């Protein structure tokens, strides 16, 4: 089939990769170059955040975890396995179950006291994929182009504008804009502010989801660290807030004392594509050709990207 994919973030490019492998002709229509998508800005660590429903996210997340582990092993640009520490503010009950995400990760163990920063009684250690999006997305884009996919930079006013390209099927992977394109008013922004600092030699990702001043995470990359962050549902403002930058620097220094006094290289804001439930489904009501949706990934687009794209592939395969 001749398939038009709307969107060249992680969702659109993952779908493009799999659909090309399955032998389809693919045209990616995108309003923005990959470098200016929300995906390009993401931290971007495998870790389910602000996305549902839980059972589907767990399934998509497990598939994506395995795919990213394989990419890291194969040396795909930007994908590494990152040792990680989730800090806990209280000792868990002796029989407390591990968090949902632990099933996909497999090897999750209690942190030793010498692995914890001051004032934290407990934590969990594990390794997850971390994706340096400024390297990974251009790699995905180039792989799609090498496999014969073509790109059109164009902002669609309405979904049926794609009919000019004469598709047999359309994949709607337009992120936060996906809902407006198809009249779905359940899509909302989840504003995230992050801060980039120089990497002082860190190689451990650390997070405290329950810091009293807000979420705190530190994700070391090759030359910098991403410090976060905020998760503000319904907020459209994309200007970084200087007071929030200072607050992020302060709480990240609580969880990684080596960052005390670190200076912000840059503060960035992205709007995550929120939705009560990620939408991966076929829709025959919108256009004369089938539409397959893949949007609403919230704070988990990298965490579930390959899993959702495989379901898109199955939905496309089921089209007569
Ligand atoms: C600060 C921050 C940190 C994050 N950290 C993580 C993390 O650690 N792990 C994780 O899994 N996720 C993380 N996320 C979430 C993740 O970035 C998103 O879930 C993901 O990028 C969504 O990808 P997408 O491809 O669906 O959308 P996008 O990347 O937004 O791409 C949408 C595409 O659609 C195109 N488009 C939009 N409108 C139109 C139109 N009208 N016509 C044509 N094209 C259009 C755009 O140009 C773009 O190409 C984070 C997000 C933020 C903001």
Structure keywords:
six-stranded mixed β-sheet; D-Amino Acid Oxidase, Chain A, domain 2; Rossmann fold; 27% strand; binds flavin-adenine dinucleotide; alpha/beta; 320 residues
Straight-line N-to-C gap: 11 Å
Biggest sheet features: 9 strands, mixed
- Unique bound compounds: flavin-adenine dinucleotide
Class by helix and strand content?
A: alpha/beta
CATH superfamily of the largest domain: NAD(P)-binding Rossmann-like Domain
Query: Element order, helices and strands?
Result: EHEHHEHEEHEEHEEEEEHEEEH
Quantity of strands, as a count: 15
Poorly predicted regions are none
Q: Note the beta-strand portion.
A: 25-35%
What is the molecular shape?
globular
CATH topology of the largest domain: Rossmann fold
Helix content: 25-40%
CATH architecture call of the largest domain: 3-Layer(aba) Sandwich
Mean pLDDT: 97
Discrete helix count? 8
Briefly, what CATH class of the largest domain?
Alpha Beta
Number of domains: 2
- Radius of gyration over C-alpha positions, nearest whole angstrom: 20 Å
Quick summary of this structure?
The chain has 320 residues and is an alpha/beta fold. It is 28% helix and 27% strand.
Task: Give the topology, please.
Blueprint (H helix, E strand, L loop, with lengths): L1 E5 L3 H12 L3 E6 L7 H4 L12 H20 L5 E10 L13 H4 L3 E2 L11 E10 L1 H14 L3 E4 L15 E4 L5 H5 L5 E11 L6 E4 L7 E5 L3 E5 L3 E2 L8 H14 L10 E9 L4 E5 L7 E5 L5 H17 L3
Parallel strand pairs: 1-2, 1-7, 2-6, 3-9, 7-15
Antiparallel strand pairs: 3-5, 4-5, 8-11, 8-12, 8-13, 9-10, 10-11, 14-15
Helix pairs in contact: 1-5, 1-8, 3-8
